[in-house]
């Protein structure tokens, strides 16, 4: 909503309606925060970097292709970014450069991605680059924010309650249909309903749509369609909506209410979409409605990392981008800053044997790192032996100085986790489960936060802090009362996990104090609040256990890929060519999580004494020692570089005015303040505004606002009117150069405004008539 204050991200636990400030209230600048960079592609950066001192400084350190992304600020842009090539760095520097150069206004940019963690990371990076105020959200968060704001106007009354879990509603729907579902079937039917909604499939069309998509349905398709319809009835009866409804309802409002769609488009004029290969048809429809007839869109993705098709995600939107936007600039990022040449060679080898459309557009990665060890391949008699072997190697790595937090064990299914948990515990290796309870939701972390907040307020009266001379020692003193000790407890289990959580807070305090000398306990508490909102947990010193799906977007120095055998990779139920290729891409994602060392293993049988009937995954053929290679293929995506589209190929859509960094027209200083950029002069430089013209423009604006039924500032803000009155433009070109006058407003109001500037009344006549 135009000028609306940014709301906190909405998490799946949110069940209450958020209050939204009135349209037009000014955005508050975000407070700077620390962002942990250890799991971000192409980074081993300073923990607390300094904000660049100029727009050009934002571009420092980017490679040629990343710089192309950062400076391509107009029209459609498609970034094809291989794993570890710094895509997040490229797009955040793109946004920050545009803002710092005065080409993009922070509040006009909407960056969308797929997880709260990724959105939080993006917001943090933008703050570090001096581009606070840019909205970075998930699709659902952005849609929910708009739906809550416009519900009273579009629909009326109170918005239905949002439920974060569907399972109980599906169970109630099954009971109403007198269909018995066990726990597994309940989960699978829920997944089918979610898939149906994101692919915009109604209950009556479920059966043919599932057949066309080749889905393995957990029950008879007609039965699932019946359950789906009953589920929708239960929601209506209870006046609740689910997360897919948030997108569906937002789409409906924007389709049916053109005035609301225009209001949203007036707010957001530049869009960036991360992980574009994971966009569903429903999310693409929402994006199209946000865009309208404009083309200021930058998308980033990698078809070779499409691993969520079972949820409705499809790489087709990414692969067809050039067809839908013939004038698009396409930039390919292939310089891999994450992994060693040995790891990259294996990753490229996996995709060299791939088939299908995504494989035709694969990117050949080129490692930018020094050589490292070759991947290690290990075969075991059974799964417990495989787990013990991994735990033993990990114990050796930790003893040699590798931090436990820089090691991960990745597997195909969550059911494999238990064997590795037991093996690590037996070896005395601490671990954490990825996808388990979130860090800031842990009871010990909540209690620690309360204790630190209390000490920040009343620490002067706390004897615990008498001998604490700096911030780290204050934190250690406070957390010692919560169970933290200088030495970790022996063994593993709950006690060790609680200690690891508190130790992560102690380590964060040390990093924070080193980066911000003089920081107080209150500053640290505020930092923790910021990180909790973004779900950016500090590093916990334990080996990560994660499924391949949940590991996407993360990286470690050492990765153990386990269970890489036929039947598990690819999984047994992957039957079609498309399903097999997605399993290959899943293994590719796993391989590219490793920075330096990669261990790949499999077991010949499931349990001790079992028949050794398993064989290594077919995906390793020709890659592991002693196996036969399959004929490779050349990547159509090929090397990195830039492909520029043919401008003006979007039919009659007018081209946007290209803007250069804003400078004061009086003294020539580069402008960075949004208000000064509107006026094109420093606030303290003399104004030559025509007062009479300004008043006539204000009267005209009030009349336009009454006719359209919207606030006056939604026509033009006061600052924009002042800029027009100071410039008194003679033609559309001069008017379009004024910040705040976009193509939509130029087309809608340009004739009237130019007439008023020429001394005429809007619609004809002169002031003397």
Automatic annotation (TrEMBL):
The catalytic activity of this protein is classed by the Enzyme Commission as 5.6.2.4
Tell me the ranges covered by the UvrD-like helicase ATP-binding domain, including all copies: 60-340
- GO biological processes: recombinational repair
User: What Gene Ontology terms describe where this protein resides (cellular component)?
Assistant: cytosol; DNA helicase complex
From the UniProt entry, list the residue stretches annotated as the region Disordered. 604-659
Give the GO molecular function terms. Answer: 3'-5' DNA helicase activity; ATP binding; ATP hydrolysis activity; DNA binding
Catalyzed chemical reaction(s): Couples ATP hydrolysis with the unwinding of duplex DNA by translocating in the 3'-5' direction; ATP + H2O = ADP + phosphate + H(+)
Span of the signal peptide: none
Q: Where is ATP bound in this sequence?
A: 81-88
> What UniProt keywords are attached to this protein's entry?
ATP-binding, DNA damage, DNA repair, DNA-binding, Helicase, Hydrolase, Isomerase, Nucleotide-binding
- List each copy of the UvrD-like helicase C-terminal domain by range: 341-596
The record's Gene3D superfamilies line, in alphabetical order, gives: 1.10.10.160, HRDC domain (1.10.150.80), P-loop containing nucleotide triphosphate hydrolases (3.40.50.300), PCRA, domain 4 (1.10.486.10)
Q: Which cofactor does it need?
A: Mg(2+)
Q: Where is the HRDC domain?
A: 687-767
Q: Which InterPro entries match?
A: DExx_box_DNA_helicase_dom_sf, DNA_helicase_UvrD-like_C, DNA_helicase_UvrD/REP, HRDC-like_sf, HRDC_dom, HRDC_dom_sf, P-loop_NTPase, UvrD-like_ATP-bd
Spell out the family assignment given in the record's similarity comment. Belongs to the helicase family. UvrD subfamily.
**Name of the protein in its database record:** ATP-dependent DNA helicase UvrD2
């Amino acid at each position: 909503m135009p000028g609306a204050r940014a709301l906190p991200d909405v998490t799946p636990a949110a069940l209450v309606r958020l209050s939204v400030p009135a349209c037009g209230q000014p955005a508050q600048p975000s407070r700077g925060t620390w962002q942990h960079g250890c799991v971000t592609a192409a980074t081993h950066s300073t923990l607390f970097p300094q904000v660049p001192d100029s727009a050009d400084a934002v571009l420092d350190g980017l490679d040629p292709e990343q710089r192309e992304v950062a400076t391509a600020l107009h029209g459609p842009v498609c970034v094809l970014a291989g794993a570890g090539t710094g895509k997040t760095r490229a797009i955040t520097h793109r946004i920050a450069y545009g803002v710092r150069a005065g080409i993009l206004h922070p509040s006009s940019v909407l960056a969308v991605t797929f997880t709260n963690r990724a959105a939080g990371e993006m917001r943090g990076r933008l703050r570090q680059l001096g581009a606070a105020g840019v909205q970075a959200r998930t699709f659902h968060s952005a849609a929910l924010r708009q739906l809550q704001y416009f519900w009273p106007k579009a629909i009326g009354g109170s918005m239905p309650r949002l439920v974060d879990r569907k399972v109980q509603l599906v169970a109630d729907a099954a009971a109403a249909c007198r269909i018995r579902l066990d726990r597994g079937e309940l989960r699978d039917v829920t997944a089918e309903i979610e898939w149906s909604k994101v692919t915009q499939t109604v209950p009556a069309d479920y059966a043919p749509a599932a057949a066309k998509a080749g889905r393995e349905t957990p029950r008879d398709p007609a039965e699932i369609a019946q359950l789906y319809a009953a589920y929708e009835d239960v929601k209506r009866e209870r006046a609740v909506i689910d997360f897919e409804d948030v997108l569906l309802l937002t789409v409906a409002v924007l389709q049916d209410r053109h005035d609301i769609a225009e209001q949203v488009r007036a707010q957001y004029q530049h869009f960036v979409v991360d992980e574009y290969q994971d966009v569903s048809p429903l999310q693409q429809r929402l994006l199209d409605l946000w865009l309208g007839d404009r083309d200021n869109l930058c998308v980033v993705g990698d078809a070779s990392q499409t691993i969520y098709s079972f949820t409705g995600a499809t790489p087709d939107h990414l692969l067809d981008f050039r067809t839908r936007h013939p004038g698009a600039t396409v930039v390919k990022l292939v310089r891999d800053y994450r992994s060693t040449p040995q790891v990259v060679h294996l990753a490229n080898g996996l995709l060299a044997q791939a088939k299908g459309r995504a494989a035709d557009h694969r990117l050949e990665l080129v490692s930018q790192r020094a050589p490292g060890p070759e991947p290690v391949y290990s075969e075991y008699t059974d799964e417990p032996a495989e787990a013990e072997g991994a735990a033993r190697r990990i114990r050796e790595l930790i003893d040699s100085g590798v931090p436990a937090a820089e090691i991960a064990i990745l597997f195909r299914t969550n059911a494999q986790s238990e064997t590795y948990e037991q093996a690590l515990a037996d070896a005395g290796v601490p671990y954490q489960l990825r996808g388990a309870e979130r860090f800031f939701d842990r009871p010990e972390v909540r209690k620690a936060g309360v204790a630190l907040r209390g000490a920040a307020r009343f620490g002067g009266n706390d004897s615990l802090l008498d001998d604490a001379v700096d911030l780290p020692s204050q934190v250690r003193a406070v957390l010692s009362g919560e169970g933290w000790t200088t030495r970790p407890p022996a063994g593993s289990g709950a006690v060790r996990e609680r200690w690891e959580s508190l130790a992560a807070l102690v380590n964060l305090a040390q990093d924070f104090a080193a980066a911000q000398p003089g920081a107080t306990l209150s500053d640290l508490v505020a930092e923790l609040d910021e990180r909790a909102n973004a779900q950016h947990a500090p590093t916990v010193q334990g080996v990560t256990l994660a499924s391949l799906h949940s590991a996407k977007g993360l990286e470690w120095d050492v990765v153990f890929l386990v269970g890489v055998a036929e039947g598990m990779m690819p999984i047994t139920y992957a039957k079609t060519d498309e399903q097999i290729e997605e399993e290959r891409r899943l293994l590719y994602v796993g391989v590219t999580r490793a920075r330096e060392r990669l261990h790949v293993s499999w077991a010949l049988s499931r349990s001790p004494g079992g028949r050794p009937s398993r064989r290594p995954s077919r995906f390793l053929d020709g890659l592991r020692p002693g196996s036969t290679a399959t004929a490779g293929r050349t990547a159509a995506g090929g090397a990195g570089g830039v492909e520029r589209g043919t401008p003006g190929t979007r039919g009659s859509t007018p081209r946007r005015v290209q803007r250069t960094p804003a400078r004061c027209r009086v003294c020539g200083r580069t402008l960075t303040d949004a208000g000064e950029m509107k006026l094109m002069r420093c606030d303290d430089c003399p104004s030559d505004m025509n007062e009479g013209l300004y008043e006539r423009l204000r009267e005209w604006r009030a009349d336009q606002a009454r006719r359209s039924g919207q606030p006056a500032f939604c026509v033009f803000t006061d600052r924009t009117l002042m800029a027009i009155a100071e410039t008194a433009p003679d033609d559309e070109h001069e008017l379009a150069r004024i910040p705040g006058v976009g193509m939509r407003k130029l087309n809608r109001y340009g004739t009237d405004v130019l007439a008023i500037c020429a001394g005429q009344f809007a619609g004809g006549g002169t002031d003397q008539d």
